[in-house]
Amino acid sequence: MTAASQLTVTGHETKESSAIDQEPMAPASPRPEGPGRPGERGGEAAPAELRADCIADSAGGLTFDLNAPQDTHTTWSAALVLRLRGGDGADDEVRLPLGPNGAGRLRAVLPSTVALAEGRWNAYADLGDGQDPRRLLPGVNDLRSLVDRRPLAGIGRLGVRIPYATKFGNLALRSWLRGPHAEAGDILVAPDGMTVSGRLYGAVPAAGARAEARARRNPKSPETAPATVAVPLTVDGADFTFTLPYAELAGRWAHGSEPWDLWLRLADGARSVRIARLLDDVADKKQVFSYPALPVPAAAGELRIGPYYTLDNDLALRVAGPAED
Questions:
Q1: Distance from CA of residue 53 to its chain's centroid?
Q2: Residues 176, 223: contact at Cβ < 8 Å?
Q3: Residue spans per domain, the chain
Q4: CB of 278 within 8 A of CB of 313?
Q5: What kind of fold does domain 48-178 have according to CATH?
Q6: Which among 19, 136, 20, 13 has a CA at the least distance from the CA of 68?
């Protein structure tokens, strides 16, 4: 896929992604170590590391500036290559033209108009020299334009791309592509419930709009809807607010530690919209944002309920039962 192509929007599932940093390790070289200097294989110098500085713009585009040795030569086919982790289709690779940008620098641009499917994309450099694309390392990121980003409320489809370093020290992008989108803002946690404020993009609520908490546990039969707690949605233009009482969640608790996903239903019969926090520079909010799980009395004993962000930065709640002896 080239930079002029676009990907289609994929649907959202209620389960959390398991692809977080499950990138393959680089295969070992089949050639034995040669007699050359340390770091050389078979007498040939090991390729120099390539690092990419990333600059984000407020529209969702990214510019990659690569450091390159002075003697690095590229051809017309040189490209920065993005590969969707776990993907194997033709649309799961994006090639961005890579060209000189001053002495010792190469540049590639990912425009906001090029859509990336939701997921984690590994970044490589193909210098057009006939060698396999080389994995990029992260450099310096300038993501200031992503902080408190506020796109136009009427935008039909929202694309978000955040570069980050994987646990193996490589460069990757976390991508979201959603429309409509409900952006979570302030979350106020109280003993009797939680109040969520946010902003809606790409849709307008109608009469009867509501927020829904849905238990992620499997229903007893395919015909049975998941356990759901619905509360009214207060709307002011594109901004929304709702309060979810913990007592109702406690009354629906079944067993163990149960996750509940949070959605907006903008009208009766309308497709629900997942609530998530995407518009900032934090790729994995589960590791950064922490909220208290407060005690809530229930018939089965004291439960603990509190919000959290999933691996996909979607907003959820966890209802945990009393500890078993």
A1: 20
A2: no
A3: 48-178, 181-320
A4: yes
A5: Immunoglobulin-like (2.60.40)
A6: 136
